[in-house]
Amino acid sequence: MSERSGFWAELSRHRLALASVVVLGVLSAACLGAPLLAPYAFDAIDLSSIQQAPSEDHLMGTDDLGRDLFTRVLYGGRVSLLIGVLSAVLATVLGSAVGVVAGFYGRAVDNVLMRMTDVAYAIPTLPLLIVLASYTEATAVSMAVVVGLLSWMTTARVVRGEVLSLKEMAFVEAARSLGASSGRIIWRHLLPNALGPIVVGATLAVGNAIILESSLSFLGLGVQPPTPTWGNMLMDAQATMATKPWLTIFPGLAILLTVLAVNFIGDGLQDALDPSARSSR
Amino acid sequence: MSGRTGRTEDAARASEPEVVAGADGAGGSRTVEPVLSVRNLTTRFHTRSGTVHAVNGISYELRAGETLALVGESGSGKSVSALSVMGLVPPPGTIEHGQVLLNGRDLLQASERERRDVRGREVAMVFQDPMTSLNPVLTVGRQLAEPLRRHLGMGAREARAASAALMKRVGIPNPADRLSDHPHQFSGGQRQRIMIAMALACRPSVLIADEPTTALDVTIQAQIVALVRELQDEMGMAILWITHDLALVAGFADRVAVMYGGTIVEEAGVGELYADPRHPYTRGLLASLPRLDDPRARLTSIEGRPPDLKAPPTSCPFASRCDWAVDRCEKEVPPLMDVPSVSGRSGPGQHRSACWRWDDLGGAVDAAFPGRAEAGEFA
Fold first, then answer.
1. DSSP-derived secondary structure letter, A102
2. Do B209 and B241 contact (CB within 8 A), yes or no?
3. CA-to-CA distance for B118 and B125, rounded, in angstroms?
4. CATH fold for domain A3-279
5. Strand (E) positions, chain B?
6. I need a surface site. Which of A32, A100, A140, B361 has the fewest CB within 10 A?
7. Half-sphere exposure of A148 (CA within 13 A, CB side)
């Protein structure tokens, strides 16, 4: 019980992380609640009011088809956040599993898994996604899966390294001497100790995935219009960046806020998960 | 006196129960089955640069309530022999042969699952460094509860209450509150107390203590030793105490086995070992202890280096450093031979020495130890 409260106490001491939780929470809630909150339909074209600057009617202005930018940012966030979170979860679970097994069992198992990791590393993500996108229609979920399957390697390597050193620690031997099985040692003793780097990897993965989706959309290969994502909104705005800056600023700001918030949360989590870093203030 | 020929003892000793003198010494003798009987245990590490002969056929027995000190320098194989008993020799180490009979069952023949059930329940271990032996991210309450839940099938609440009782028993103040603290919130001595509580949670019949006081300062050492002895009186477990500190075990071990180069070179009752050491290495160790009665005395040391364990033993492992060595020592590995005991008893488990010239040695080493009165009596 108090273990949990110590964790929350530490996390709440981390002001940036706490602020980030609030920002990300509001952002996610707004995106999820887009159908209720959005003043317009995301694909409602209004040719009488194209490329308008932010105003009372259109909080963030309108794009070149007269669509309300605020509405599109909210709807775009649903796709971008889904891709970010889903692919990060996938990458983290897969990467941790590969890393912990490779590090713990060592020898042949380690060799096979790490060579697989090297191979996966060698696959160039962007070209592969471009090829995939040209054959199949990209949906948010399929993109999340593909991005997740292509970004577990860093986590795997970091976790493996962590486990390699952790498994030599005296407490692992002590746990064995008390009858713990390998599975129990992995689950109870190794993973909790490796949680810091795992969480950091996960937060980085969220940011990377959102940016990757943006890059693909920017190239016109992501989720297809009229479904908005933060990335394809940026792409649409590139021609008018200088003259109609709000078209760039708002989706860009959304990406920036999300990625920053996730990274700050990761930072805070890392401190909160390390009991000896918890101060006794 | 039995003369110069010691009865050579088979490394794998007879399995019949042995006769030990009753504690009071008056009522004759009683028969006690050993709880732990290690026979001809051989552990090797097959590394890329060759095979390391870490433990070369050691045998010893441990009875309930008894404390056997396994003394030796770094690399003498004492820790590896303990890990072999637990079945926890790290790769690339393998137990080549031998038997580890715990309450009559050979652990080396048991499956890994069976051995897991035995660890922590019938035999448990306390390690050298209490600072790293506890998992830093789990509360001590969860760690203490682990063996209780694993082996005794306790539920969370029951295990918590039992953990608090254990903490109290090993002398941690405010046990109920402190269960939710993490290891870094305890001192080194307290952490070692907690490790002892974890090891003894399921009341094992054998406790292996692998230099449990080495990392602690001297006053704490004494407290830990006292605690373990108290708990031994209470629970009656046998203790295998591994150490490099002959002076430390003098106070509380029943018997001492001295290890050198992966073999036991001498084993005797604790008083007898100090009063009448029959192996040159033991004598060297005793002579090298610092003297408190003569502050100007120089520290003595044993010349030379420990044997290279990569070569299989073909001579007495100590021969190259031994002032007493003769031709035979270079040609034949001396087995453990029975030595007539000071107490007049002989036979297995009394006094054994792996020196061809045990009969030429004898009497106390000039060291700051009691028992010099018997010096020369058997020389």
1. H
2. yes
3. 12
4. MetI-like fold (1.10.3720)
5. 18-21, 29-32, 34-47, 50-63, 67-71, 93-102, 105-106, 123-126, 206-210, 238-243, 255-260, 263-269, 337-338, 351-353
6. A32
7. 21
Residue A105: closest C-alpha in chain B: B91
What does the alpha-carbon distance between residue B200 and residue B69 come to, in Å, rounded to a whole number?
19
Q: Which residues contact B261 (CB under 8 A, 6 or more apart)?
A: B56, B76, B77, B306, B307, B309, B313, B317, B318
d(CA A246, CA A45): 18
Is some CB atom of chain B closer than 8 A to the CB atom of A36? no
The C-alpha atoms of residue B321 and residue B325 are separated, in whole angstroms, by 8
CA angle B108, B109, B111 (to 5 degrees): 100
Q: How far is B61 from chain A (nearest CA, A)?
A: 21
For A230-250, letters b (16+ CB in 10 Å) and e give bbbbbbbbeeeeeebebbbbb
Q: Which helix (H) or strand (E) holds B15?
A: none
**Quick one: B174 exposed, middle or buried, by C-beta within 10 A (0-12, 13-18, 19+)?**
exposed
Q: Is A138 helix (H, G, I), strand (E, B) or coil?
A: coil
* Residue reference for tokens 């490099």: B244
pLDDT tens digits, one per residue of A215-266 = 777 676 777 777 788 877 887 777 787 787 888 888 888 888 888 888 888 8
Answer yes or no: are the C-beta atoms of B95 and B58 closer than 8 Å: no
Q: What is the ipTM of this complex?
A: 0.77
Residue B100: beta bridge partners? Answer: B38
Averaged confidence pLDDT in chain B = 81
Closest CB to A171: pick one of B116, B119, B132: B132
pLDDT (average), residues B126-137: 89
Does the pLDDT value for residue A168 go beyond 70? Answer: yes
- Contact status of A182 with chain B (Cβ, < 8 Å): no
Written as one string, the DSSP assignment of B214-247 is TTS-HHHHHHHHHHHHHHHHHH--EEEEEES-HH
Kindly report which listed range (A40-44, A150-154, A246-250, B279-283) carries the lowest average pLDDT score: A40-44
pLDDT in the model for residue A79: 85
The answer to whether the predicted template modeling score (pTM) of the entire model surpasses 0.80 is no
Provide the shortest C-alpha distance from residue A117 to chain B (in Å): 25
Cα separation, B243 vs B210, in Å, equals: 7
Structure tokens at B140: 């001590």
Domains of chain A, by residue range, sit at 3-279
